Prior knowledge:
The chain is 45% helix and 15% strand. With 220 residues, the protein is of the alpha/beta class.
Amino acid sequence: MNIDPDDGWSLIVPLKPLARAKSRLAAVAGALLRPRLALAFAQDTVAAALECGRVRDVVVVTDDPAAAAALAALGARIVPDSPGAGLNAALTHGARTVREARPHARVAALNADLPALRPHDLARVLEAAGQFPRAFLADAAEIGTTFLSAGPGAQLTPAFGGASRHRHLSSGAVEIRLAGVDSVRRDVDTGEDLAAALALGVGPWTAAHWDGTAGDRAAG
């Protein structure tokens, strides 16, 4: 078995239909702006991931046609969410799809709501993850998970949702403890999360949508 350690990572990014995405942001963004922000978060996440030198490709698992078109235009590979059985099933499906073509691929799940993501921060996380069969990064609250990796020969075995940090620890994945990678940990579910991401500095799609809807938010 000849595995190239420099082959690069395949990142699996799951994205639910935009009409149902980021429901907890409705209070700050409104029902009409919320799905646009959800797509903007994903665009900034995917664009930053594709700029990371350790990333070979980004696979987005989604059934949303508008999101699929927008993210494919950035260079992502789109895989339909054929299981239709939730987040973890979508991630398992995405990883399986990658390894059908590259059986020994390094794969990692990455949240789609990291609008402040920095390629350099992601590179540091991937470098650390490469030292272990499975590894993960907790979110900023240290309750959930924003990143989960599986090296050659290891299964991803995702357990995202809610208090996933504990579940990933219990599954044997190694927790990555790095300072200065806040952009990989700052997912956005609430208005407070969005404020924190904006303070870090979000990517161009999120910035444009948030700034461009200021008048609509004030009117609402």
